[in-house]
Fold:
Amino acid sequence: TETGVPLVANTWQHVVLTRASKDGTVTLYIDGNKAFSVSKLRIGANLEQGGAFMLGNTGDNGAHAFVGFMAEVSVWKCVVTREVIRKISHKPVLTGSEDKLCLYLNFKGVSEDDSSVLYDVTSEREAQMKGRASILQHPVDIRGESGSAAGGAGGAAGGGGVGAAAVAFHSVALRFEERSFGRIATSPPVDILRDQVSVGFW
Structure:
């Protein structure tokens, strides 16, 4: 569904999207704050098991491509609480062992022989990435030392903006150019609930 909520160009922002099929509620959080919510959207429609995760696009044809950078991708088999959302929107604090966290890609664990092979921190499983998205070779500045969001590597629509309380940090990022995407397939498949899901990223 169209949210009508724009991301700020050339600024890192933290995004979380939650969905519960029981009542069809979809909620969008930007930098830890609720930005959009709708209910009764496709009530009872569940996720299909065994599929791949698509980052930066809705399909392989590049028709709805995201152009920018993305970092710290997490997928949860639950509707995450506001407390968790606010915690992870300030800086990367995930260890991979959090309850209900079923996929965590920080793009730091990449195969030396094949940059398309990533590692899921939650279980040390391999994830194969296909598409034209590329991993930056050097970490980017997600937040500046002053606490403000930093564009880093030319800027990104992906995280930032929680003000002086933010902690400076750097992260490896995934770059999306025009008509690019990242199709992520894990082996073994991610164990995700069919009726509840949350996705977070910078």
